[in-house]
Specification:
By secondary structure, this protein is α+β, with helices and mostly antiparallel strands. About 50% of the residues lie in helices and about 25% in strands.
Length: about 350
């Protein structure tokens, strides 16, 4: 029954995230007066179709994506309402609004979660745990954490990420603001925790001061949290190219379904909403990466067109997107295989 529940809740979550993403593209395209042929949730064979006033709406069998099919999007068109005939700034908005909607959804969910809290974390050390080890290396009460191993700290989540992104690290170089001056602390140690599901990470052995909840602190903390998640994604992607990433932290559809199911079952509504918010932000940020077949890749091609002052050959653009799609599907199969192996 748990497997069935995981599948159902995951399909619903993915469907919601895909709907918000494609809605961003769709409504911006309608605003830009671009002819839309189809709004699809899911990929593969259609299980439901309906012709509406604006376009055809469909639900397809595989909940791994979706699309908004626009006139002239994948080739030249003489229609004045085609995608290619619109000004570049309007095309840019159409392309970017899918990811923007996912990030906005994540931000809204985080606001809803944080609205239940009485105060919000700062980055200023308030007190140390009884078994703290970082205090012996120079960290003091009142220190404001500025950076950890060169990673700029803007929020408490940045501290968590900086201490967890390199599980093999033995110590950290920390810059703090103390009495109005920046102080460099070298070789600061933190307790190392070993877990079965999440591997090893360094634990934060101190507590920070809180900031009382107001509408402004709620929005500030939620925006900071969203930005921190976004930064951590780009940092992780960068670490892949420098061969420093722990690929065990990458999950495919199977691993994601397990995480969603466990959050809904054991963590309750708040835990589930947090997971959905994280996935939504991840989806938005990853879609902005300049890789063929992603929105970011298409934005890059649009910028190249703007620099060249003439459109790219449609055949070249189609070929690049096709290769990118094949590579993405191959990556998805690899991480799915890893997830399945991890279940046994």
């Amino acid at each position: 029954m748990q497997v069935v529940f995981n599948i159902v809740i995951t399909v619903l979550v993915f469907g919601l995230l895909i709907l918000s993403h494609e809605a961003g593209h769709f409504f911006t395209a309608i605003w830009a007066k671009i002819k839309v042929h189809e709004f699809s949730i899911g990929m593969g064979p259609a299980i439901y179709k309906r012709d509406g006033k604006l376009c055809r709406f469909s639900i397809r069998a595989l909940p791994i994506g979706g699309y908004v099919q626009m006139e002239g999007e994948d080739g030249d068109s003489d229609d004045e309402n085609s995608f290619t005939k619109k000004p570049k700034w309007k095309r840019f908005l159409v392309l970017v609004m899918g990811a923007a909607m996912n990030i906005l959804m994540g931000f809204i969910l985080i606001c809803c979660i944080n609205a239940t809290m009485e105060a919000y974390h700062t980055t200023v050390v308030a007190q140390f745990d009884d078994d703290a080890v970082s205090v012996a290396d120079g960290l003091q009460v009142g220190d404001k954490i500025v950076s950890i191993d060169g990673y700029r700290i803007f929020s408490f989540m940045d501290i968590s990420y900086a201490l967890s992104k390199d599980s093999k690290a033995e110590d950290f170089d920390i810059t703090v603001q103390r009495d109005g001056e920046k102080v460099q602390l070298n070789d600061v140690h933190f307790p190392k925790v070993e877990t079965e599901n999440y591997g090893s990470f360094h634990d934060i052995d101190f507590k920070v001061f809180g900031k009382k909840r107001t509408i402004f602190s709620l929005l500030e903390f939620s925006a900071g949290y969203t930005v921190s998640v976004s930064r951590s994604i780009y940092s992780f992607v960068g670490s892949i190219f420098t061969f420093e990433a722990d690929l065990n932290q990458v999950s495919g559809p199977v691993g994601t379904a397990q995480i969603i199911g466990e959050s809904a079952t054991t963590g309750g509504l708040i835990s589930l909403l947090l997971v959905v918010a994280m996935i939504s932000i991840n989806l938005g940020i990853m879609n902005l990466l300049p890789f063929p077949a992603l929105d970011g890749g298409r934005i890059l091609l649009l910028l190249i067109e703007a620099i060249r002052r003439k459109p790219l050959n449609p055949k070249i653009e189609t070929a690049l997107n096709g290769v990118g799609l094949v590579l993405l599907m191959g990556l998805m199969l690899l991480v799915t295989f890893k997830d399945i192996i991890g279940l046994f």
